[in-house]
Amino acid sequence: MSTQHVDVLIVGAGLSGIGAACHLEKDRPGTSYLVLESRAALGGTWDLFRYPGVRSDSDMFTLGYSFRPWNEASSIADGPAIRRYIEETAREFGVTGKIRYHHRVRSAEWSTAEGRWTVTAERTDTGETVQLTCSWLSACSGYYRYDEGFRPRFEGEERFRGQFVHPQHWPEDLDVTGRKVVIIGSGATAVTLVPTLAEQAEHVTMLQRTPSYIMSLPSRDPLAQWLRARLPARAAYPIVRWKNVLSSTALYQLSRRRPALVRRLIRRLTEKQLPAGFAVSTHFNPPYDPWDQRLCLVPDGDLFRALRGGRASVATDRIATFTEDGIELESGEHLPADVVVTATGLNLLPAGGMTLAVDGERVELPETVSYKGMMLSGVPNFSMVIGYTNASWTLKADLVNGYVCRLLDHMDAHGYGSATPVAPPEGADAPFLDLAAGYVQRSLAGLPKQGGRAPWRLHQNYLRDVALMRRGALEDEGMTFQPRARAAAVPERTVA
Asked: What is the pLDDT of residue 488?
């Protein structure tokens, strides 16, 4: 039985993977590819997360694809709308029929002699093992573990008679009507859940150990509304997209250069949306600078509105122990609870958990160095999509997926069979992700390293990356190219 072969194998059918397939369809027609997805549906994060009010924490003019306009009215979209957008994009570009569901990739091994990857996947519906080969392998599976979120153990939690819920696995039948809810956490998930659950619950408390920076953003972009009334969608979309890119970049750069100024600005905006006498210094005064951790956005100030209305409250403290009917804090305060939502974060899982090997030698990710934030030193014909931590994920995903097409074109034009990054001669020890968030810090030891300069330095700057990825040289000191291998046999090709 012959092994099926494709030019490009994409792992993951979420926002990144569908984007990668669309780039191949439009930039390299005729390239054979398949998309392997471990779950039963496309959409990735936006199909997995089903908690009430789930929404983007980036505006959809930058979270949307560069090549397909976002046409809905809301700029901050809910999960179902984003999932629908991904599905419609896949259908429009002819990607849907090239997705294989229930295929979890377990391992991939590169053979220099054959010039291709052998990828082993497990059928999650039947348990069957499947092998495919490809010339290029694109890991578009994000960086967190889909089957298990981060869930710390709390003192005395076994005594609690209520219900624990993690947002990553929200029960469809959970009804909080008339119940007391405590949400542990202060990140994007928590600030989304608070106003949504407060509409039904008796009361919702956001229990945070450390406050986050939170900013309100209009749910509908005024410029987008104005332009849509006067221009075709494809003309209005890039204008709004670039406006949002430039404004978010300016805020980030100002935060890095003048953190005290941005801190004061955010505080003034927060104070305006809270009732007089609210303990802003306690509950909305993070001990770190803006953008040391990701900024939380709330559409139309819905979190602040829930706090003003008394349907929700914030407690900033540490958990001493759980009781039968709630949580006792270190301050001595007791929070009554019927339902506790542990919005405590994610577990990182680089490359979807697959193992990589090159010519029989296992690739240890912490021993590799990232090249342009998308490839690994010593690993041929392999790319991975890791979005920005300070901006929309898709901005970086689009650049990486477009760069792969450029690189494949270059290899074809020069008769190269493989492209292999090399580590910088001076070594590298910078962390792969420069973010103080707990889920990142817990996992840095298992991630690749960064160098101190380009092309081994991951820029968190879309404007610089546009120049580097769309216009920059494909041959530089960080990349080597190898001639095509003389394989003993031509593998069977498939596009179905």
From this structure: 40
- What is the number of other CB atoms lying within 10 angstroms of the CB of residue 287? 7
pTM for the whole structure: 0.93
Q: What is the pLDDT of residue 494?
A: 46
Please count the CA atoms within 13 angstroms of the CA of 65 that sit on its side-chain side.
24
Q: What is the pLDDT of residue 447?
A: 81
CATH architecture of 4-147+347-493: 3-Layer(bba) Sandwich (3.50)
Q: What does the pLDDT read at residue 300?
A: 94
Strands 355-358 and 361-362: antiparallel
Q: Token match 């986050």: residue? A: 212
Two tokens at 189?
Answer: 């998930």
CATH 3.50.50.60 residue ranges of the chain are: 4-147+347-493, 157-342
* Per-residue pLDDT tens over the stretch 227-247: 999 999 899 999 999 999 999
Model pLDDT, residue 438: 62
Q: Does 3.40.50.1390 match the CATH number of domain 157-342?
A: no
Quickly count: other Cβ atoms within 10 Å of residue 255's Cβ.
Answer: 21
- The amino acid occupying position 478 is G
DSSP 380: T
φ and ψ at residue 361, rounded to 5 degrees: -105, 125
CA–CA gap between residue 7 and residue 408 (Å, rounded)? 10
Q: What are phi and psi of 16, to 5 degrees?
A: -70, -45
**Contact at 8 Å (CB) between 369 and 423?**
yes
Amino acid at 207: L
CB 9 within 8 A of CB 136: yes
Q: Could you tell me which of 388, 368, 375 has the C-alpha nearest to residue 440?
A: 388
Pick out the chain residues at pLDDT < 50: 1, 488-496
